[in-house]
Design goal:
Shape: globular
CATH architecture of the largest domain: 2-Layer Sandwich
Helix content: 25-40%
CATH class of the largest domain: Alpha Beta
Largest sheet: 7 strands, mixed
Number of domains: 2
Structural class: alpha/beta
Strand content: 15-25%
């Protein structure tokens, strides 16, 4: 049972603040990592973007949304607030904003999707060996990470650069506003591209290149470093929450892995929501294959994988552009009727550019093989298969691991049994559907419960799986041929910016 009524929930409770790209949510979990029914608050948010590649948020408005959801849940809990033992946080990764000497933001909060620093990334790649940067930090030299973004700010946004005395993630900003401290989890720091993977400290080479002092970055802490003692304003507002530990924010991808039960090398997490990702938790400090990344869950466990810009956005684009009715089960039934790779099409589903593994941000989608008889459902089926082939390519690029179980999550994938089967066939491996609707929030709840000593390990609370999609090996062979066609089309159409 993954949900429980408030009256039946077991103490202690953990509140989970989840700051995503579309909303801020606060949920409540009990000692069994079960979501407490009816104790939830949500506020929508907007990321501002433009043709120059910006993806920005007003940081104070975002913080106000966090305060609003905390207010609402404290009210909903009433006397049950006394059973809350911790607050755990995850945020979209990575984010960055500069603060002046008074702690005031000097510019907008920039999200992972902000690509305004692309020219700086190109320049840095011309000056420094990206393979060496990747080996040290686990991150590529791309506009999604802090080295390129800081270089761009220094040369293109001089006011921000000179006014800022410190650079923080949004999780750090929450800590600053609530506690008056500057700390950043190893998990969130790993997403910046400035964390030295072998030592889990700030990368001295980047600090020198960027003329950045270590005192301009947060103090590195691990996920179990709970902080107690809100500033007076907040302590008066939430008296009980001033007496419990608040754990530092971690990256949402790390939280999702933990929440879906993929906490070791025995399971690989496959997520397809609006976009997609493949991630495996590995002990120690592994060096990821070039083109993939290595982030952190905590000091003991790395998160190795890749993120795709394609996913449910491809399904949405095709159905909306071709005006396909998606209500009811008719479209799903028609998609399921296809034999694998029987439409005669080869698709590069790069409608939003490419991240892993080639990082060609300017790449464009391509549909090859269109004929007069090609119909809308042909194109949609080919597009879904093309995303699955990209997943298979990333899965094959992961470091050697014993995992045989692939755990799938994400609304776009879980809502289409046909797409689930396509993924199983393309991978040649059984894919298990995760029933966890709030895997990210559940993940930080599990980490908090471990830090509190309520559970001894992240896998102490079983994570259920639902339907298993077993591969058809004849279909797998056909998809192997389709993958070669997709790779050949990619090589012709895409200039890899390495």
């Amino acid at each position: 049972m993954q949900h429980i009524d408030l009256s039946d929930a077991q103490s202690p409770f953990v509140l989970t603040l989840d700051v995503g790209t579309s909303s801020v949510r606060l949920l409540c979990f009990d000692a069994g990592a079960r979501q407490v029914n009816g104790v939830e608050a949500r506020r929508s948010m907007t990321v501002h973007s433009d043709a120059q590649g910006s993806a920005e948020i007003d940081v104070d408005e975002l913080f106000a949304l966090c305060v609003a959801v905390i207010d609402e849940v404290v009210t909903l809990l009433g006397a049950y607030t006394s059973r809350v033992a911790a607050v755990a946080i995850d945020t979209m990764a990575t984010t960055m904003v500069g603060l002046d000497a008074t702690g005031r933001a000097v510019g907008p909060l920039r999200t992972y999707a902000d690509t305004q620093s692309d020219a700086s990334a190109v320049w840095l790649r011309s000056m420094y060996a990206e393979h060496e940067v990747h080996r040290r930090t686990g991150c590529m030299l791309r506009p999604n990470y802090w080295p390129a973004r800081l270089h761009w700010l220094r040369h293109r946004c001089e006011r921000e650069w000179h006014e800022a005395t410190r650079w923080v993630t949004f999780g750090e900003y929450i800590d600053w506003r609530l506690f008056g401290v500057h700390r950043v989890s190893l998990s969130a720091a790993a997403w910046t591209g400035l964390l030295h993977g072998p030592t889990l400290s700030w990368d001295r080479t980047w600090l020198e290149i960027l003329a950045l002092g270590a005192d301009q970055l947060g103090t590195l802490v691990d996920v179990d470093d709970g902080r107690i003692g809100l500033l007076p304003t907040w302590a008066q507002r939430w008296p009980h929450l001033a007496t419990v530990p608040w754990y530092p924010a971690i990256g949402d991808g790390a939280a999702a892995n933990v929440g879906s039960g993929c906490v070791d090398v025995d399971q690989v997490a496959l997520t397809i929501g609006t976009t997609g990702a493949v991630r495996v938790a590995m002990p120690g400090r592994p060096e990821p294959p070039f083109g993939l990344w290595s982030y952190r869950i905590d000091r003991h466990t790395a998160l190795v994988g890749g993120a795709m810009s394609e996913g449910g956005n491809v399904y949405q684009w095709v159905t909306e552009t071709l005006q396909m009715p998606v209500q009811g089960g008719d479209l799903e039934h028609r998609l399921a009727a296809y034999a694998p790779d029987s439409h005669g099409l080869t698709v590069l589903p790069l409608w939003a550019g490419e991240r892993s593994p080639g990082w060609a941000g300017d790449a464009q989608a391509t549909i090859h093989g269109l004929r007069l008889h090609t119909g809308p459902v042909d194109i949609l089926r080919a597009a879904l298969e093309s995303v699955a082939l990209r997943v298979a390519a990333m899965m094959a690029a992961l470091p050697p691991h014993p995992a045989q179980r692939v755990v799938a999550s994400g609304g776009a994938l879980l809502h289409s049994p046909t797409w689930m089967q396509i993924c199983a066939d393309a991978l040649g491996r059984t894919v298990y559907a995760s029933p966890i609707g709030e895997a990210t929030a559940r993940g930080v709840a599990l980490l908090a419960l471990r830090s509190l000593g309520v559970i001894g390990a992240l896998d102490a609370v079983p994570t259920p799986l639902t339907h298993a999609f077993h591969p058809n090996m004849e279909a797998y062979q056909r998809y192997q041929q389709a993958m070669q066609r997709q790779k050949a089309l990619y090589d012709r159409m895409v200039d890899i910016p390495l």
